[in-house]
Design goal:
- Helix content is about 35%, strand content about 25%.
- The protein is α/β, with parallel strands linked by helices.
- The strands form two sheets. Strands 3-2-1-4-5-6-10-8 form an eight-stranded mixed beta sheet, with helices on both faces.
- α1 crosses α6 and α2 crosses α3.
- It is globular, with a radius of gyration of 16 Å.
């Protein structure tokens, strides 16, 4: 599979790039810095620039968006994701996986007790960005999956995770190592039953 990761110079995206390459996939990473794990094709550029994004996603079998916010820029995640979606539609690329956040969309019910209210208040600005991002994804007509991790950590991976849809009676935990989230992403990319679904993810 040819996979393009938008925002893969560090964090979860970089872990995904390494895992995908080790699994035999061809990987391209688009980031502003142009950084990428060793052996991965790196593209430097602004992920809101249609020409840059088109060059990175054309020919891919799947695209993963793992971008964070940008200081001083409102709704950076939504802006990047909208540009990616348009480029995918133009290039005929169907499979899209997007990293959002637990608390976005209808997922606050997956947060235990009063944490849902606290999260909505404390993280109002980034969650507004994620809500717009998710709206673009679900309305894209693409084969999308949204992943909403709980708190992310740099702990050593456990090799396991929980990926639950809203309404599942099981409970999510407090955090998930970034490398475990990346492993979850790679599995989701290969799972046709995950298309059109959003999952909360924890350790």
């Amino acid at each position: 599979m040819e996979i393009t990761i938008v925002g893969g110079s560090h964090g979860t995206g970089a872990h995904l790039a390494s895992l995908a390459q080790e699994a035999g996939h061809e990987v391209t990473v688009l980031s502003r810095s142009g950084g990428a794990p060793a052996g991965v094709r790196a593209v430097a550029g602004d992920a809101t620039d249609p020409a840059v994004v088109a060059g990175a996603v054309t020919g891919a079998d799947a695209v993963v968006v793992t971008v964070g916010g940008a200081r001083g820029v409102k709704h950076q995640r939504a802006a990047v994701t909208g540009t990616v979606i348009k480029a995918m539609q133009d290039a005929g690329v169907r499979r899209l996986v997007v990293q959002s956040s637990l608390g976005a969309g209808n997922s606050s019910s997956q947060l235990p007790g009063p944490l849902g209210l606290i999260t909505r208040v404390a993280l109002a600005a980034p969650l507004a960005d994620h809500n717009e991002q998710e709206s673009l994804v679900t309305g894209s007509g693409l084969d999308w999956t949204i992943l909403r991790p709980t708190g992310l950590t740099n702990r050593e991976p456990a090799g396991t995770w929980r990926a639950l849809e809203v309404g599942n009676p099981d409970k999510l935990r407090g955090s998930v190592p970034r490398k475990d989230l990346a492993a979850c992403m790679l599995k989701i990319l290969e799972d046709d039953s995950a298309v059109g679904k959003a999952f909360g993810v924890s350790g």
